[in-house]
Design a protein that fits this description.
- The chain has 8 helices and 8 strands, in the order H-E-H-H-H-E-E-E-H-E-E-E-E-H-H-H.
- By secondary structure, the chain is of the alpha+beta class.
- The strands form 2 sheets. It has a 5-stranded antiparallel β-sheet with strand order 1-6-3-8-2. It has a 3-stranded antiparallel β-sheet with strand order 5-4-7, with no helix packed on it.
- The longest helix is centred in the first third of the chain and has 24 residues, at 28-51.
């Protein structure tokens, strides 16, 4: 049990509100490492964005930042929230769908500042994805992500007027972590001042839902052999898709897509 939140309380809040916050779940020194590594990856991904013509100067975000052995890898491997994530997915296998450091640079507006939700498919009572937001800086009444509580079950986009009137904010000190339903309507805010407000966001999905990045293929089998069984599961090593007939015709214990993945 983290932060005094039982699995039953977590389940109730996710059903009614669509989000739960675990206050100061991570120690300060580790949060500083995460913050530095998020900014490091944002600089790395900026080069790809410029090189490939995605934008001219980077958008202050990075994607799929695993494999360098830094604090982000260590955080994923901690599985601090595994009991809650597993309960959210009905105690069935789940995988990492996305991993995105957000720079929160002052005065910069990007796609995260538009009112949105992070999965378009809505199946009432059957969540497909879960969002995690790790606060690497304090989230305050001025810079906290805005969210429309309880909107995770509605198929329609809230009007800007409704969202502006009824939204709440994710608030917490650095090291706090929010888990929220990926169909919850939310938006980022324009950061004021001079210091970036950094966050690490992680998306999880049911094992049979195609992730935004094929992490097992990106990281490779040599890397995968160093991982714990749970981390192999979460990074998609148990739900890989064969690409040759030789990969398809394998004994059960050697198959790339394991039988318990849904």
């Amino acid at each position: 049990m983290l932060g005094g939140i039982t699995l039953e309380k977590f389940e109730q809040n996710m059903h009614e509100k669509g989000w739960v916050i675990f206050e100061e779940a991570l120690p300060d020194d580790f949060v500083e490492e995460l913050r530095d590594d998020c900014l490091k990856w944002i600089n790395i991904c900026k080069e790809y964005q410029i090189k490939n013509g995605v934008n001219g100067s980077g958008d202050g975000t990075a994607h799929h930042c695993l494999g360098s052995g830094d604090s982000i890898d260590r955080y994923v491997d901690m599985h601090l929230f595994h009991p809650y994530i597993s309960r959210y997915f009905d105690d069935q296998p789940y995988i990492c769908n996305s991993l995105t450091p957000i720079g929160g640079f002052p005065g910069v507006t990007t796609y995260v500042h538009k009112l949105h939700r992070d999965v378009r498919t809505l199946i009432p009572g059957y969540p497909l994805k879960l969002n995690m937001l790790v606060m690497c800086d304090d989230f305050t009444s001025e810079n906290g992500t805005m969210v429309l509580t309880g909107s995770h079950n509605r198929p329609d986009r809230p009007s800007d007027e409704e969202f502006g009137r009824y939204h709440e904010r994710f608030l917490g000190r650095a090291g706090s972590v929010v888990l929220f339903n990926s169909t919850l309507w939310h938006k980022g805010v324009t950061i004021l001042g001079s210091r970036p407000r950094v966050a690490l966001t992680v998306g999880y999905g049911r094992a049979f839902v195609k992730p935004a990045m094929d992490y097992a293929r990106m990281l490779g089998e040599v890397y995968g052999e160093t991982l714990s069984p749970l981390t192999r599961q979460v990074l998609g090593y148990n739900s890989r898709v064969p690409v040759t007939l030789d990969e398809w015709y394998q004994a059960v214990d050697k198959r790339l897509y394991h039988p318990d993945q849904g």
